Structure formats: C-alpha cells, structure tokens
TrEMBL record:
<dbReference type="InterPro" id="IPR036554">
    <property type="entry name" value="GHMP_kinase_C_sf"/>
</dbReference>
<comment type="similarity">
    <text>Belongs to the GHMP kinase family. Homoserine kinase subfamily.</text>
</comment>
<dbReference type="GO" id="GO:0016301">
    <property type="term" value="F:kinase activity"/>
</dbReference>
<protein>
    <recommendedName>
        <fullName>Homoserine kinase</fullName>
        <ecNumber>2.7.1.39</ecNumber>
    </recommendedName>
</protein>
<dbReference type="InterPro" id="IPR006204">
    <property type="entry name" value="GHMP_kinase_N_dom"/>
</dbReference>
<feature type="domain" description="GHMP kinase C-terminal">
    <location>
        <begin position="211"/>
        <end position="285"/>
    </location>
</feature>
<comment type="function">
    <text>Catalyzes the ATP-dependent phosphorylation of L-homoserine to L-homoserine phosphate.</text>
</comment>
<keyword id="KW-0547">Nucleotide-binding</keyword>
<dbReference type="InterPro" id="IPR000870">
    <property type="entry name" value="Homoserine_kinase"/>
</dbReference>
<keyword id="KW-0791">Threonine biosynthesis</keyword>
<dbReference type="InterPro" id="IPR020568">
    <property type="entry name" value="Ribosomal_Su5_D2-typ_SF"/>
</dbReference>
<dbReference type="Pfam" id="PF00288">
    <property type="entry name" value="GHMP_kinases_N"/>
</dbReference>
<keyword id="KW-0808">Transferase</keyword>
<dbReference type="Pfam" id="PF08544">
    <property type="entry name" value="GHMP_kinases_C"/>
</dbReference>
<keyword id="KW-0028">Amino-acid biosynthesis</keyword>
<keyword id="KW-0418">Kinase</keyword>
<dbReference type="InterPro" id="IPR014721">
    <property type="entry name" value="Ribsml_uS5_D2-typ_fold_subgr"/>
</dbReference>
Amino acid sequence: MLNSVLVHSPATLSNLGCGFDVFGLALAAPYDTIRLTRSPEPGVRIQHLDGYNLPTEATRNVAGVALLMLLQEVPETIGFDVEITKGIKPGSGVGSSAASAVGAVVAANALLGNRFTKMQLVEFAMAGEVVACGARHADNIAPAIFGGFTVVRAVEPVLDIIALPAPPLWVAVVHPQIEVKTSDSRKVLPAAVPLGLAVRQWANVAGLVAGFLTADYNLIGRSLDDYIVEPARLPLIPGLAEARKRALAAGAIGGGISGSGPSIFMLNRTEETARAVGAALGSVFAELGIAFNVYVGPVGTEGARVVAE
Ligand code: HSE
C-alpha cells in the first residue's frame, strides 16, 4: 500500500460555447500539483504551498471538502495530509477549484488501492464545487477526471457522464485580470429561454458533439456559438466581442467565454495558429489597459494522474 503520492490535475474549459453546464475539455497544462500522504490520524489537514491565500480549513477548502466526502465511504480509520501547489490561478475560469478537488480525490484513490470508480470520484469532487460557487456542477470536474472531451448528460438523479476523445486541437486562453465570481455570473442568467433560441442552441450542441467525433473542424467552428449564456454574461467581460473578432481573423476555429469567465478560449488547428491567436487575444486587453495572461497549449488527453510516489 502506498503511503504518499504526487498528482498533477489539469485546467479545464467548461461550457465550450453552447454547452452550458454540460461540455468540458481537459487542457494539458496548466495544472495543480497535490501531494497527499495517508495518516493514522483521522481528518484532513491542508497546506497551500502557493501565494493565493486560499482557506486551509478542510471544511472551507475545495480539496478538503472533496476528501471529507470520500472519507465517509472509507471504513478504515485514516486521514490525509495534503500539500497543494496551485498552478492554476483561482477565479480564472479554467477550472481552478475543480482541479484541486479532483487532484485530491485521485490521489486519495491511489492511496486506497483505486477502490473507487471515476464516476464516484466525480461525485466526491463535486462537493468541492458547491463550496467554490454554490452549484453542484460537474462540467469542469468531468474532464479533469476523464481527460479529453466530456458531456455531463445528467447530475441528478444519477450522474451520467460520457467521455469522448477530442481530436488534436490547440487552445489559446487569455485571462484578463478582472474579477468575475462564478456565483455572480450565474445570477445574470435568464430563468427562461424562448423556444426559438433553445432550438438554435441544441442544434449547435448536436453539431459540436458530431464535430468532435468526426474531427470536423469547420463543423466545430460553426457549432460553438452560444445564444443563451454568453449574451447575458457579455457585459461582465470587456473586450470579448473584439477578442473573438481578432482571434477569428488570426485563424481560430472559434471560441467563447471559458466557463463563467473572465477567461476567453479559442480552439485552433495548429500550435502556430494558437500562438498567433493568443497574441491577438492579448492585444485587445493591452489596448484596454487590463493586465492579462495568455496560455497556449494542446488539449489534454489524460485527466488528473499520479506522477510520482
Ligand atoms: N458551467 C459553469 C458556469 C462553470 O458557466 O457557470 C463555472 O465554473
């Protein structure tokens, strides 16, 4: 039985345009690094080895809450000591809280002889999302666990997740340094949707899944558009319309808000295009005088994984 493991848990894009709370895509990097050590002392003790000043009390920490949930299913008297080094900036919209929660439960599962299924790990990690934003959603958790492209078909009454391979894609993400809390960006969403808009949206949802399965990049591009959530969130993200315009001109397939924002993602066929698109995205925020980070990397085929013992 292992005593300690080191796990990398990746950033993820959720929603992917039209698939609010349903679609997710794993990135190869950035990732959070989690060292988990089993202890005979019950409970969860957390240390953050980064400068983000996140809560370390287990019941207020996304990884802590996920581990406490997992421990409820463990008959042995054990606990965990956790060291988290965040490579993903909190609040950036690329699944920062999901990465920590997923990394922790994947590490715990390795220490417990992999007794839990990936679906159970999603359940545990989702408890962390409730702490982070008040909503039990799995669209960042699922790709962080399974890798590739994921569809959360249902969360209730039974979790139903479809994990699909993603075609080779390069992702450009710009993270403008403005604060958009997920809880706030969910408050602006419409409570009801006109049928005509819903039809356009679910046509895109079907088109995007088909595009991913057949590696049809043109179909992916024309199916990404979100007619329901993005229009409501547009006022929260200055520069979004211009960023999309410049990214498409630089060769991007398409993109939109990453999760609940403020990051913006663009999918691309090649690394070269993704780099040009990253620069185009950055130029918008440079002109607006808003500090930003740009990330360019491939889609992640793997989810969180043990990298060392
Ligand atoms: N699907 C969620 C949202 C992701 O858009 O609110 C938040 O991380």
